[in-house]
Amino acid sequence: MDLVKSTRMEMSNQVNNTEMYITGAPACPGIVIGNTSLYQRARPHVSDTQITDDETEVHIHKFYEALDIAEEELEALLENTDMEDLADLIEMQIAILKDPELHNRIEQEISANNKPVDAAIESIFRNYLQVIRENHGETFQNKSVDISDIRDRLLQIIHNKRDDIKEGAILVARELSPREVISFSNRNIKGLITDRGGATSHAAIIARSMNIPTVVGTQRATEVINSDDEVVLDGRNGEVVVHPKDETREKYKSLIEQQFKRQADFESLCKKPNETSDGKTFSLQANIEFAEELSIANKYQAEGVGLLRTESIYLSRKHFQNIPQQVAFYKSILELTTPHQVTIRLFDVGGDKFFGDEGKEQNPFLGWRGIRMLLEQPELLKNQLRAIIKTSEDFVGRIRILVPMVSTIDEIRKLKDIISEVQNELLNEGIDIDKDIPLGLMVEVPSVALKADLFARHADFLSIGTNDLTQYVLAVDRGNERISNLYDQRHPAIWRLIKEVAEAGERNGVPVSVCGELASDPIAASCLMGLGINALSMNAVVLPSVKQVLRSNSYIEMQQLAEKVLAAETMDDIDNIFSNWETKE
Ligand code: PEP
Ligand code: MG
Hints:
Largest sheet: 8 strands, mixed
Strand content: 5-15%
Oligomer: single chain
CATH architecture of the largest domain: Alpha-Beta Barrel
Structural class: alpha/beta
Helix content: 40-55%
Bound molecules: phosphoenolpyruvate, magnesium ion
CATH topology of the largest domain: TIM Barrel
Radius of gyration: 27 Å
CATH class of the largest domain: Alpha Beta
Shape: globular
């Protein structure tokens, strides 16, 4: 057996039979047991250490091994393609891989300069690209992409981190972007584990809405988990068990059975009226981003959509400027939610919701996002408004528009002018639009919450986005697992602000709802009710557990609970109040 393989086996044997627990933040409830697939973005990190003389042999061997694999992969691709251009390209890449000059240089870099294999590949390809740039001038761009692709292919093989994600696997990744979660959800992924990210990062929210059990912020999952390891993922408490013992596996299997049973109980609970034990009614709606999520929302009897995130339209770049595509999307949501309302939020792009490197900023969450960006992209904004307002023709009284990241009154004034402009254009074209679409503001910037009376006078409704409100009030990045212990939406300061907003809404006759993740905690939802907010929108998967708690308590008890959280001084106080309420259940 070769040295490389035997070293790899020894390493895996050391951990193979040992049960190990890793914890992170629970991001989507549900328990799954399965085998893992490691996922790494296209270009792995390259080591910056030096190797010893004794190690050079192993690294040279690794290089040739990677070379063989890459060549086999390319040959297989070549066999399966009918496209001439692609075939030419693959042949060119194979020729490069076979180039003895390349082999010599990489060997040299490893043995003479003591570079680890990945660093050697990186540095030789850098020189190679430089030479090509000098020789090919303008045509360099295309060539360099093809050559970088070979480099990345080799690096990925060496790091054993290819995107060979298997159907039904539990995916382990350093971090995931919202777009990656969307794409994995189409690949039947059973669960997600990430090193980085908090439970309210946008990627985690999407995972939750796709009902994929998820644990985020484990810090070290990608270091200790290999591909094809068996794991138990417990998305209720953020626990991951690697190589579970037989008894652990059995314990979780029986929990999974209970999970199925609870599911059946939930469905019958959801058919009961939305009222507290003393008859105070409430409305529970779903936060969604894709039409697919409506099957869960409808199963749990959501009363419409309290937050339709539209970023996925924006992220799928090619569609966002296409008005008919947008109209078709909005229509599909409205048709599936009859007779309820759908609150469509304008593109909330920026923060963690950018694609690619475009528009990178040093403080993206405090930067050019939401309405700030939309007002500077009039075509994008007008197209979206046009699509929404045009859709209203067939759904009068059922659409509401929600504005993200509002921080000044001027933004609302400008937006209203643009809405009137779009309305007039459509009316002139003879389209019978809904002229009274309510315009709501997200309350997620602290200054808006503090001046809620003023903002309420400019809006038809207010929707509190506790995910962002919390990060701005507490100065804690919602996606940073390093400080995730400081990020708690139940913080006393947040309750204080929510109360202000609820009262301002009441004074001005403007309905207030909550669409941030705070509403998905059953006890927090009870507090929100106690503060007079009886319209809550949440991830559809948690609708039954919230409803269960709201139905089994009285409004008076909820008011008392709200008084207690308002009087709390610290997070410990809040924890105590919440756990006492839980034991009461
Ligand atoms: C929020 O900030 O609470 C919210 C609902 O919006 P998002 O999570 O999409 O930023
Ligand atoms: Mg937000």
